[in-house]
Amino acid sequence: MSCADELFIQNCRDILANGVWDTDQQVRPRWEDGAAAHTVKKFGLVNRYDLREEFPVQTIRRMAFKSALDELLWIWQKKSNNVHDLGSHIWDAWADETGSIGKAYGYQLGVKHRYAEGEFDQVDRVLFDLKNNPASRRIMTNLYNHHDLSEMALYPCAYSMTFNVSGRTLNAVLNQRSQDMLTANGWNVMQYAALLCMLAQVSGLEAGELVHVIADAHIYDRHVPVVEEIIARKPYPAPKLWIDPEVRDFYAFTKDSLKLEGYQFHVLDTAIPVAV
């Protein structure tokens, strides 16, 4: 059983059995027919994934690994906030007529600041410190810039990464304010696990633990039957991650630089309602 499957199943069972419904509150999200999209949630889930043991990809449903990588590189490598730079259409609902999602995600990572060692944006500062100051306890990024929130189409969900080097092992904490468990949990976990592997490789380190902290882990009301169907399945073993060993520059990675080997998965035929 994949650890990504195991933790997802545990989390969802806990949310469905012990979570709190928000049906007595006014909520922002709506279904396509205009109805309020209510959720059942748990506060403060913390999951640990040891990338030395296996790469965390769900097998109880097919995960679109290449599309997830494409979005990750759009944010972290291209530092873009325009959907025209993205291969999928997952951000189209949030974009304006020019394709911009405002001062969100990639925009925040690309803003440069001056340090004693020179001028860096957030990604380049991480890359510099991993190679030159690995003992630092200040290697982190933050997308939740209160000064710019009013100019973001959507407030960042996964908003902060804290990197920590122990010996020659690179670990990280991903902080997420809110997560739609059905549509985003498996997606975000494999994205940031891949990011950790890429950063470790170009820094001469070994990828270690990814710790995922979710403040509001929720399941939408119309997603409950789909979640129940998925978590009843028998998981397959986790696939292996192949990462091109020749890539030593973070900006040289492409979505084809990483592959899942031996990936078995269940097919989900049920359509997933979308809340916006």
Can you give a write-up of this model?
By secondary structure, the chain is an alpha+beta fold. The chain has 6 helices and 10 strands, in the order αββααββαβββαβαββ. The radius of gyration is 19 Å and the shape is globular. The protein starts with a helix and ends in a 15-residue tail after the last strand. 38% of the residues are buried. The model has no long low-confidence stretch (mean pLDDT 97).
Fraction of residues in helix: 25-40%
In this structure, how is the largest beta sheet organized?
Answer: 6 strands, mixed
Low-confidence stretches: none
Number of helices: 6
User: If strands are numbered along the chain, what order do they take across the biggest sheet?
Assistant: 1-2-8-7-6-5
Could you give the distance between the termini? 33 Å
Mean residue pLDDT: 97
Could you tell me the strand content as a percent range?
A: 15-25%
* Large-scale geometry: globular
Element layout with pairings:
Layout: H1 3-18, E1 20-21, E2 39-50, H2 65-76, H3 106-110, E3 113-115, E4 118-120, H4 122-132, E5 140-142, E6 158-166, E7 169-180, H5 181-202, E8 206-220, H6 224-231, E9 240-243, E10 258-261
Summarize it.
By secondary structure, the protein is of the alpha+beta class.
